[in-house]
């Protein structure tokens, strides 16, 4: 098989269909499109490890993730073919046919396209939009995605991207301060002695204590890596664990603006010291959850009374 990045857009869509079904089976038959996407990349060694963090800039100056297009179209084709349903935006569920599917990837994509392509053509004819084939091969489609494709993502994707861009633009020192503030919001009592020097100190970027409801106190070490593009690899986890041991930390939190290789994820889950990995996407989740340097803006709408809404 050719490397994933050498496949054309249609081949990439076809390739992703079976992993989507398999990952949904692994997590009980339903889940968020974001989680399924991350699990596919984590578990499928045929996919580049950096495929989720890869970005490109369109001629209009918009930043986008090219992997999202074949992934979202694969989901929409599976929905049109009856293998998935989408009860709400950003959430997918296996149908009975999806749960029971046991064929090959080629058999699946052939069956899916035999059902979905006529429906795409019908939608295109009704809406006078571009055909699915035209859209799926155009990397300038950010503003041209059909409603079906946009519904595979959450409502706040634009806001999430703005937050991610802002975090990526922090200098390394401000990023470390940012991470310390975030962990503090997560009820870790931060030390003012360890991990307070500027970047490149060769040690920890934070250290603290967390006490549970039953009054058990755990020493927590924090590492923050402001990396754009490159993934954190296994040796970085080893170095962090060594620093944790030096300070006798039982628990570690490794935060990065990018992501982690499969080897790094495996390393974090082995050994006596548990390390929680927070990648760029999860970091945005936590920033929103704890409203760290962001605030929720509620849009106001107005309802017309009878005087304005009636001509009688």
UniProtKB/TrEMBL annotation:
<feature type="domain" description="Restriction system protein Mrr-like N-terminal">
    <location>
        <begin position="16"/>
        <end position="100"/>
    </location>
</feature>
<dbReference type="InterPro" id="IPR011335">
    <property type="entry name" value="Restrct_endonuc-II-like"/>
</dbReference>
<feature type="compositionally biased region" description="Acidic residues">
    <location>
        <begin position="137"/>
        <end position="146"/>
    </location>
</feature>
<dbReference type="GO" id="GO:0003677">
    <property type="term" value="F:DNA binding"/>
</dbReference>
<dbReference type="Pfam" id="PF14338">
    <property type="entry name" value="Mrr_N"/>
</dbReference>
<dbReference type="GO" id="GO:0009307">
    <property type="term" value="P:DNA restriction-modification system"/>
</dbReference>
<dbReference type="InterPro" id="IPR025745">
    <property type="entry name" value="Mrr-like_N_dom"/>
</dbReference>
<feature type="compositionally biased region" description="Basic and acidic residues">
    <location>
        <begin position="147"/>
        <end position="159"/>
    </location>
</feature>
<feature type="region of interest" description="Disordered">
    <location>
        <begin position="122"/>
        <end position="159"/>
    </location>
</feature>
<keyword id="KW-0378">Hydrolase</keyword>
<feature type="domain" description="Restriction endonuclease type IV Mrr">
    <location>
        <begin position="168"/>
        <end position="286"/>
    </location>
</feature>
<dbReference type="GO" id="GO:0015666">
    <property type="term" value="F:restriction endodeoxyribonuclease activity"/>
</dbReference>
<protein>
    <submittedName>
        <fullName>Mrr restriction system protein</fullName>
    </submittedName>
</protein>
<dbReference type="InterPro" id="IPR052906">
    <property type="entry name" value="Type_IV_Methyl-Rstrct_Enzyme"/>
</dbReference>
<dbReference type="InterPro" id="IPR011856">
    <property type="entry name" value="tRNA_endonuc-like_dom_sf"/>
</dbReference>
<dbReference type="InterPro" id="IPR007560">
    <property type="entry name" value="Restrct_endonuc_IV_Mrr"/>
</dbReference>
<dbReference type="Pfam" id="PF04471">
    <property type="entry name" value="Mrr_cat"/>
</dbReference>
């Amino acid at each position: 098989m050719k490397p994933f990045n050498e496949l054309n857009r249609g081949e990439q869509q076809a390739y992703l269909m079976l992993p989507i079904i398999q990952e949904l089976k692994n997590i009980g038959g339903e889940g968020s499109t974001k989680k399924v996407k991350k699990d596919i990349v984590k578990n499928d060694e045929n996919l580049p490890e950096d495929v989720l963090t890869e970005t490109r800039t369109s001629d209009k100056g918009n930043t986008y993730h090219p992997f999202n297009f074949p992934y979202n179209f694969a989901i929409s084709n599976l929905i049109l073919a009856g293998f998935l349903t989408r009860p709400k935006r950003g959430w997918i569920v296996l149908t009975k046919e999806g749960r029971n599917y046991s064929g090959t990837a080629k058999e699946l994509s052939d069956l899916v396209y035999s059902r979905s392509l006529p429906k795409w053509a019908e939608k295109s004819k009704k809406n006078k939009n571009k055909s699915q084939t035209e859209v799926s091969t155009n990397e300038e489609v950010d503003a041209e995605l059909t409603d079906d494709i946009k519904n595979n993502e959450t409502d706040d994707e634009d806001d999430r991207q703005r937050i991610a861009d802002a975090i990526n633009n922090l200098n390394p020192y401000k990023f470390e301060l940012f991470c310390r503030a975030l962990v503090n919001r997560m009820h870790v009592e931060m030390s003012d002695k360890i991990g307070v020097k500027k970047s490149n100190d060769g040690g920890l970027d934070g250290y603290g204590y967390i006490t549970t409801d039953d009054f058990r106190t755990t020493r927590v070490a924090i590492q923050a890596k402001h990396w754009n593009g490159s993934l954190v690899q296994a040796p970085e986890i080893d170095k962090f664990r060594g620093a944790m041991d030096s300070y006798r930390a039982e628990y570690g939190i490794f935060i990065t603006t990018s992501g982690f290789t499969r080897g790094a994820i495996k390393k974090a889950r082995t050994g006596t010291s548990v390390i929680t990995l927070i990648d760029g996407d999860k970091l945005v989740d936590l920033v929103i959850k704890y409203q760290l340097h962001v605030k929720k803006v509620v849009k106001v709408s107005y309802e017309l009374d009878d005087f304005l809404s009636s001509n009688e």
